[in-house]
Amino acid sequence: MPGLRVVLAEDAVLLREGLVGLLERFGHKVVAAVGDAEALLSAAATHRPDIVVADVRMPPDYSDEGVRAALKLRETQPDLAILILSQYVEQTYAAELLDAGHGSGVGYLLKDRIGDVREFVDALENVADGRTVIDPDVVRQLLNRHRTPLARLTPREHEVLGLIAEGRSNAAIARRLVVTEAAVSKHIASILTKLDLPPAEDDHRRVLAVLAYLRS
């Protein structure tokens, strides 16, 4: 993917500087790196980036300032891609983010995921490309909390469902599971049927449909 213009909002200086270096190493340009929500809103309005990467909790109260600023940005810039980073699994924030802008171009990752550099950059690029990317640990908790409808799925379908929610395309799932794309399509059709969800070709729409069902 051609170099992205990124606004980064993270109050921890060492992590912020580390992310700037990491993203620039992969050919992306951090046009602004800030430490609070107000500065994030200002930077996004000034620079009109391709994607915003923001921590959930930021000054002054360290509650939900980062995600609130991101949601406000989606109201004024509906096409702006948003990737939220969080220290812990906070499902309410993940759900609110998914609902913003119909879920297109949004991501929610745990900060631990940054440790896998290639996986983090892939997630950022997928979100910038309009996909929905949800941290596997968030998906796992949702699966564990809602066992009844998912009891209909086979172990392989559980694997496919988790990979869909990570924002992976059919081709990427096929490579990961070492099966054909036709087999992946068949699994997805079966998953949607078993969960009483209409089939959809859009990656982000099918992820939203599955997660919306799991949240219900």
UniProtKB/TrEMBL annotation:
What are the Response regulatory domain coordinates in residue numbering? 5-126
Task: Print the organism lineage.
Answer: Bacteria, Bacillati, Actinomycetota, Actinomycetes, Streptosporangiales
Q: Which organism is it from?
A: Sinosporangium siamense
Q: Which Gene Ontology BP terms does the record give?
A: phosphorelay signal transduction system; regulation of DNA-templated transcription
InterPro entries on file = CheY-like_superfamily (IPR011006), NreC/VraR/RcsB-like_REC (IPR058245), Sig_transdc_resp-reg_receiver (IPR001789), Tscrpt_reg_LuxR_C (IPR000792), WalR-like (IPR039420)
Q: Where is the HTH luxR-type domain?
A: 146-216
Q: Which domain of life is it from?
A: Bacteria
PANTHER family xrefs: TRANSCRIPTIONAL REGULATORY PROTEIN NARL-RELATED (PTHR43214:SF24), TWO-COMPONENT RESPONSE REGULATOR (PTHR43214)
Q: Which UniProt keywords apply?
A: DNA-binding, Phosphoprotein, Transcription, Transcription regulation
Residues that the record marks as modified (4-aspartylphosphate) are 55
Identify a single GO molecular function assigned to this protein. DNA binding
Q: What is this protein called?
A: DNA-binding response regulator
Q: Does the keyword Magnesium apply?
A: no
